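User: Predict the complex.
Assistant: Input components as received:
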Amino acid sequence: MKKRIIQRVLLGIITLWLVSVLIFIGTEMLPGDVATAILGQSATPETVAALRLQLGLDEPSVLRYLHWLAGILHGDLGHSLANGRAISDELLPRLANTLFLAGYAAVIAIPLAVGLGIASAIWRGSVFDRLANTLTLISISVPEFFVGYILVIAFAIRLTWFPSLAMVDSSSSFLDRLYVCTLPMLTLTLVVLAHMLRMTRASVTAVMSSPYIESAVLKGIPRWRIVVSHALPNALAPIINVVAFNLAYLVVGVILVEVVFVYPGIGQYMVDAVTKRDLPVVQACGLLFGGTYIFLNTTADLLAIWCNPRLRHAR
Amino acid sequence: MKDNNSPLTKLMQDAQLSRRGFITSASAVGITSAMGFSPFSVSAAEPKKGGILKLGMSGGNTSDTLDPTLFSDWVPLNQAYMLMNGLIEIDENNKATPELFSAWEAKPGAAEWVFTVRDGVTFHNGKKLDADDILYSINLHRGDKSKSAIKTQLAPITGLTKQGDNQILITLDGGNADLPYLLADYHLVVVPAGFTDWSHPIGTGGFIFDQYEPGVRSLFKRNPNYWKPDRAFVDAVEVLVINDPTARTNALISGQVHAINRVDFKTVDFLKRSPSLNIIRSSGGQHFTFLMDCSVAPYNSNDVRMAIKHGIDRQKILDTVLRGYGSLGNDHPIPKTDRFFNHSLEQRVYDPDKSKFYLKKAGLTDLKVELSSSDAAFAGALDAAALFQGQAQKGGIQVNIKRQPADSYWDDVWMKAPFSMGYWGGRPTADQMFSTAYQSTAKWNDTHWKDEKFDALLLQARSLLDESKRAEIYGELQSIVRDNGGAMIPLFGDYLDAASKKVGGIKPHPMFNFMGGRLAERVWLEA
């Protein structure tokens, strides 16, 4: 089992390294360059050349990649090209904001989705089952910014219960944050709910058709107990996977929601940086997003291995 | 976000090159300096003190800075005018009026100017304003080491010297009757001599720095000792950066902000129906262009250019793309609000027969052109291109629209594609507009058009101090550009802001959105 875990972690690290290479190549391929973007139309060839020199853009790509990688390994994300500030100073408070929103959504969405999924499996084919499935399917079928705008129209403009902007800053209290983040949280919850619900339902249902469940049914154990104590533990691996996937989405896929609600998170930061061709910032955000995915997926795999003995040994 | 990114970049670039070569006449200078600040025109409500003014603005970025040499977008521009004062203000009639320069006078030939520094002004830290502060603030933008956006615009200044405690002499390499307009540029805000802490600027403005998170939110509090008695009414100003047009509109409707800039042309009529909102519509120099590269075939033939200029139905595009919030263009860049606007030029109209006539004159039976377009050029540019395509066909012009990616439009397409679309923000003077984009040697001559007569006349008018003679020359320049130039200019677009009816004192301004950037110190909140 130890070997499996080490293998999995190593695989994660290698993936992360590959991601860093891809991010670097990708940002290299962006049209335009930061020197002209910073100087704008007032750029003359001389000032562009001087700025490029100052920013180290004249070095070959491979060398710049290695410098970048070395910096990251020392915990230095570099400095923003556009304003010269240390990226980590800007990134961390914003990451905290994004994680807060993601966490808020996760705390509501995951129990809700898994609970509804199990309930759907218990009452398979009932009106409840069909209703839950249809509604969540609708909410996942429309783009998240649209869900966001609908919620804004209903709850911010018509009912005026919540603000349409999720503006927070360092002086906001925890309760303030919960309040202003309600609409973005609801948006994210609606978007991730269906996926987790359906996976939970499908995986519980699949286990329910196995012979040992049949014998449990024949023994006369109540249906809900069969589901919770016999089927669920065996259905857990795919559920953990889909939950991890959606958690990653809550951090990484939040960009559109942050734009709609003007939430000062990491997504908005990255969008700004792309506009300005602020490559170190784009790279840092990209790496962070990649890292989040890999970390959560690896964790999900490890959890799945831990809770399912059959996965502990190579087949 | 597609609506935002590249137009913003363009706006920022545009703002950087804005206001170059400003002109005013000596007589106008005399009048305005004698008047001092014009009081509010009589309005129903009297200014009230108090309240926190909340502004939702597009045009901010996490990389924004309050270093005046690097201002590049709407939000820093507005914030600068809260904290600091300019040298000269452009008023709502597009005239240069005194600010920290209280008076000025040109010597004959307009190559030497004497400016008087306003007396009795103190900075937020208690220091009294003097000529040294102003020299320091102007010199931030000059010299070899300067990376300022307006370095080239200030290049004609050869001498900048103190004459006594309160007077500054500026010498130019040639006559320029518009120097006060040039000095009204928003980059030229004043800080104490030697000041460098751009993360906490100290100025003489109506508001004092309190909180600042670039691209997110800022809070500035009222300066109790502000030297302008009739301005800065609210206790504090909070600026929220909201680049997404829908989020900005929602914030206004739901009452989270009092005013927003850059209202979407598509939703303005919807906003107008709301009884609690005002739409502020400012006509100015913002215009939209179809750019033909005069150095390559077929656009090197003026007959081809004239055929194209007659092939567009301006009124239809104004009604559809801008929903009527603009005015017709006459293929030259000078707006009706300009004092030198040539009223005797006939408005060019859609005439497919004339298109055919000019094509024949150029020896062509039909014409196939490729128009590069993107909504980066202006919001609705692709719609305008599609309308033009249908209209031009009737005159024998086949337009093939080439959609270009928005985020590299200004780097890769503008000034490079033979036939493309673009836009220009307003300029306060005709000289500035012409010398930015139409003079042969202009860096942003985006049609690569060269006309010796035009260049000579432009130079001649710049150093003239006689208003009527200048009007004559600028009138002729408009006519030359209209009938020879490489730009088809079908439309001028208004600047649109929207505000809650609670905001008093808000008015249109010809420079740009939010009363030329000075909304914060000019409005008040009704209880």
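The mean pLDDT of chain B is 88.
Let me know if you want any component modeled separately.
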